Automatic annotation (TrEMBL):
It comes from Sinocyclocheilus anshuiensis. Signal peptide: none annotated. This is Myosin-binding protein C, cardiac-type-like. It comes from the Eukaryota. The lineage of its organism: Eukaryota, Metazoa, Chordata, Craniata, Vertebrata. Residues 1-67 are annotated as: Disordered. Residues 38-53 have a biased composition (Polar residues). Residues 629-725, 727-822, 923-1018 form the Fibronectin type-III domain. Belongs to the immunoglobulin superfamily. MyBP family.
Amino acid sequence: MPEPTKKTVKEAQKAVSPDPAIAEPKPEEPKEAPPAPTGSSASDTSGTVSDGSATEGLLESHQPDTRQDLTGLFTEKPQSGEVNVGENITFVARVCGESLLKKPTVKWFKGKWMDLASKSGKHLQLKEHYDRTFSIQVYTFEMHIIAAKANFAGAYRCEVSSRDKFDSCNFDLVVHGNKNNYITDAGEDSGELDFSALLKKRAVHVSTEPEVDVWEILQKAPPSAYEKIAFQYGITDLRGMLKRLKKMKKEEKKSAAFLRKLDPAYQVEKGHKIKLQIEVANPDAEVKWLKNGQEIHPTGRYIFESVGNKRFLTINNCTLADDAAYTCMIGDEKTVTELFVKEPPVLIVRNLEDQMVMKGERVEFECEVSEEGAQIKWEKDGVELTRDESFKYRFKKDGCKHVLIINDVTKEDCGHYRVKTNGGQSLAELMVQEKQLEVYQNIADLTVKAKDQAVFKCEVSDENVKGIWYKNGVEVKPDARTHITHIGRIHKLTIDEVKPEDEGDYTFVPEGYAFNLSAKLNFLDPPKIHLDCMGRTAESTILVVAGNKLRLDVPITGDPAPTVVWTKGEKVLTDSDGRVHVESTKGHCIFTIEGAERQDEGVYSVIVRNPAGEDTADINVKVVDVPDPPEAPRILSVGEDSCIVQWDSPLFDGGQPVIGYVLERKKRKSYRWMRLNFDPYKETTYEAKRMIEGVAYEMRVYAVNTIGMSRPSAASQPFVPVAPTSEPTGLCVDDISDTTISLKWRAPERIGSAELEGYGVEYCKEGSDEWIPAFSGLTERTTVIVHDLPTGEKMQFRVRAYNMAGPSLPATLQQAVTIREIMQRPKIWLPRNLRQTLIKKVGEMINLVIPFQGKPRPQVTWTKNDEPLDPKQVSIRNSDTDTILFIRRSERKDSGKYEVQVQIENVEDRASVNIQIVDLPGPPQNLKVIDVWGFNVALEWKPPKDNGNCDITGYTIQKADKKTMEWYNVYEQYRRTNCVVSDLIMGNEYVFRVYAMNMVGLSPEPCLSKDSAYIQKTGDFIAGYNATLSCSVRGIPKVSTFIYACSAILENKSLNCKIKKITVKGIVHIKIKMSFQTRKTQTQIKIFLMKFKSFLTLHRKQRNYHVQGPET
């Protein structure tokens, strides 16, 4: 069915303008707007309601905990809201961008399919922004509804997607303050949210009945209004209600038994409960309750209560069966009432649909209501439809579905059809066409350049049919450049000297027919970039702060819309680049980088192209940022309550000059930093004061430029504002030589609360005041060796302790020391592991470290088996305190006794080390099969000639079947030189091999048995009976003759040898004869192969036995 927007003007006016009878409700049928709900049914959504002008009219929206069930992409979901007509409301959705590589895509929908991005305008605005001020990156998306209308109400949906991730959230909007939901002419608001208003002209009324008394309405109403009241309030038994109403009008006589009687009538909603109450004169009187004359007994639904003089009948969960007359009796006196159970209003669940058909066709209007068996009314143009004698209208019911069927429709059947229930109504339009207009030539799309002529032409089947031309939905009027012609069946629209404003959609609508012909006029315009900041100069540079969104919105023109390409250098930038988002809209090309970084700085080029040409522009972008943090500050010195701190400028100033620094300090065990200066401090050295003595502090520095303050530097080394320590104690000489001296001391008695940084050692010649540092820096040890001292000189030494406050008082030797060597007897300290034989494998490294003592430095000598060592094989390295023997790859010949000697003049000391180099053993010798019996074989061999320079620890014996030659272990780590192999398989032939084993491992090669062991296979037969021997033979060419050889068996040519009345036993030999001819000599060659042996054993009392030979 064509869209209504493409009808003729007259038909469009007719379709949009509601019928007067439809647009205005009748006075006797008041329809009240539903009461404003107190909360929304939305669960885990959160909507922000805002009003740009007056917010006092907004209704409160339900605010659940927005943090629950947030397992998708949303960190905050839009929440259902309510608003009055003409006011504003905002829905907010937030998405966490911490785990997303690029900006997520968000779409807003109304209903199931209408994308609201195309509806942005006066009443709808979609906004988004990116916030990096927090530790978690958050994208915020907002939908602003401005001056809400009643048709904006409905279900909405927000969808967010990012690559392979997706999440959605549903929410509702309720608009209050408009009683009627009729659709009117869209006019200037044609781009609003109610897109369905452009397609359908129906009105759906859903109303809630006021709390009224049906009995009272029937009593006051004239008889002519009974039918209408029954339909409105769902009364199915109208006659019964009137009879009961007639009884109620009779006045009951006064009774002495009742102080208060039942009211004449009650009404209750279906499913609710009602309580009937009376008061009796005698508190002890017994009452009976009757329903339509039948006594009621207490049940779960009927509850009797007695409180003083009051008697109650409670009916729970009322149904239609409870609609009856109820009587309360005390003796012969009684009081009667009527109870009306009111059903809920019937709602229309599925509305009627507009239809357009051809004359003579059948039409079905179908709707669906909320209750089965509900009473409905069908109307045409405000007149109720009934079954007539011509059966023009037929009504069909199927559960909740109701269908109006119209047979053989005519032009008179056109109009608005309405279905009514007591809870709502729905309207649809029926349009009937007399005949179908054929299109011989449709109008085609045109693409023209400036000042060209555009001609739209179409041809229809009827010469008399007129039509109207539209441009973008507006009727085209002839003028000096525009000409409209109609010649026969051909309709033309000619536009001379085409201009850019002539571009658009052109439609031809035949009068009297509900379809149209459409085409598009495309105007070719060369692309052009309209930008003021083009170029690479400093004046045209665009500055962006790092972390913010870089958005380049470039105005462009061109028709057709040009394609846009963004580049940086030689690289083409696309949406697949993570943070980059490229978007083209009408008249603009937008380039966005989320969270600009330093590497985004540079020259960006935008290129626009269309078939009419191309244009290029360069944009220089500079990314400025806060400076890098300075390096960790250094504490130069400390006092009792102060310190001097120094730092270096940051390596990167963020693109803007550093204007100063901000310093902070904190106690080491605290988390709170205290700022020392509020104005930027321009120097890089600062004296911090007002600190507590004995408390450890840390310092850090911020760099500041015009963009902001950098991240803090790393904290300085902890320091304590304290005085220096006391002097070290117990300074003495530990050792001395011709050029060195060894000193030792103890830590100071008073160190203080600051940590000790180390010790400094100084010396000077006796009689001099010039103290020379013994080494650069400090040492943490309490022993030190001072080198390069002049021999024979008298020297004085002192030690000072250092902490953050500086050096302590010195500790000095009591007298000067003469630098001269002291004689010490040589002594070798042989390690415990070398006091026994050292065993190494061939190829392993040998590294012997033997410490010794002696002063002056002793002379070291090594020998092997009382002979000098070979320097090509053995390396010797000596020091003042030890000697090292090193062999990189040991060999068997390296075994032996090594002796080391240290000697000073005529005093010496010796020590010896035994080294044994071991290797894999050789193979065993002379492996023999000694005996074979049953399934057993006895083996014997001799030990290997080479035991690998260590004892043989055992042997590994293996067996293999000669058919497969797969080896299996029989014994491992077997210590003897003979063994018995058991559990062999009958009929198999075995070979054996033996490996020798020592502490290094198995011998590389085994010893293989020269002869094999065959496990005999025996056959048992009964003397005097037949026996059969068979075997399987394969050969090429085919085997022709088999010869069985035994003392009593003849030649046989088959594979089975049958022996009649066997009387002998022994070994059967089979010869296989093969013959073949060569192609040249035609000579027969006969080959006899010995392939099979079998033993025959003769028994007396057994049956025949069949022997199957092995396949060979």
